[in-house]
What does this fold into?
Amino acid sequence: MKSKFQFFLILIIISSIISCEKENFYDASDIIKLEFSQDTIMFDTIFTTIGTSTKYLTVKNPYAKTVRISSIYLAGGNNSPYRINIDGFSGTKLDNYEIKGKDSLYIFIEVTIDPNNSDLPLVVNDSIIFAYKSNTQDVNLVSWGQDVNLINGEENGIIQGTQYWANNKPYLIYNSMLIDTNSTLTIAPGTKLHFHKNSRLYVLGTIIADGTFEEPIIFQGDRPEEDYDNIPGQWDGIWLMAGSNDNIFDFTEIKNAIIGIQVDTLANELKPTLQLSNSKILNMTAVGLYAQGSTIEAHNNVIGNCGQFAVALTLGGSYSFYHCTIANYWGYSTRTTPSVLLNNYYIDVNNNLQTRPLDKAIFGNCIIYGNKESELFLDKEESENFNFLFDHTLIKVDEDFSTADNNYFKNIIVNNDPTFQSPYDNNYELDTLSVAKDYGSLEYGNLFPLDMNLNNRTNDNGPDLGAFERIENQ
It folds into this structure.
């Protein structure tokens, strides 16, 4: 009797469980309406042949009981460029998926767009279909794709001879690239160069990146999504190696790398290694402009938001900076280094002191400022030449830093906030009450009468300091 009782008790429990399971499913005849976090998933412009960042969609069951979805699938099927991932399943279709009452489902979506040899952006559409008995719902998928010139350092990444890159479509660089010795790469205005993670542009020869105000040349990472607009460290940067010469960057934007431009050629004051003008170098995890015993002529540039130095001029050399804004408001981590470093020595591998002369480092009509107490460090070895001049320049230094010697500091403004319009957003144009307004030397202003925005800085009471001339409404 006891065993029979236990047997019937087990049957009752099993029957009850089965009955409860049936009752927990939403099985009404009316139309199921799942709730979606978005009705359209939109991807920013992406490059052909490479995937995007992952987007996700939240699907909520608004009912108290479990809903069994007959099928979740991509309308484009196996031909769709999209991929979905549902609880570890990756593909284009998943059948008989259950969402418990009041629970949610996360669907992760990626897309890869195949090359189509089109020079213009294209729109790629698809949708995720949710089928339940006789009714369906859908969520739209929209991507903008762009065909690219693919440069692979392991295949076609060495530039030899003379080449000209047109701006018909972007260039995507994988595994770095090299401009070889005695070779020249000229880049057309409006060209965009995108570098994959850990990739770098090496230059043994010459690069001429000659953009215009209307069509600047842009060097950046290969994540064009809006979330990556100002994220540092996405690629390695540009390296002008020993022997490189006659490099020109005009109306260029270099952003989101580790080192913006590294210049290693030994100094030759009569022949600049680098001419840098009307350009922006922003958002570097290490250094914006890093020179080692080089010759650089620079005017109308903005260099800022770097994890270490904005400008590091080391191992001597010859440098001139006019109407440059060097501003460092780095906020991704604690910065312990100043915006500008000048240095004339190094310690070699045998722990011996090696010196090189700093023949010239002039900053005229410039701004050197940031969110540290001191933004200038002079690292001098007394036995070697260390020639520098800050003339009509606004600088930020700590209270122990002496600026009394007129041989090195002339007509400077010390520790006055230049009042940039929005420095934490990389907007370094001057506010109307800035102390840097009209303070510049007319001599330097006449050398470079147009600012980065092509405004004439010689038409009012005097040139403004920095790269931008404040134009008041008339």
Q: What stands out?
A: The longest strand covers residues 287-299. Residues 148-447 form one domain. The chain has two domains: 35-145, 148-447. Residues 374 and 397 are 4 Å apart (CA to CA).
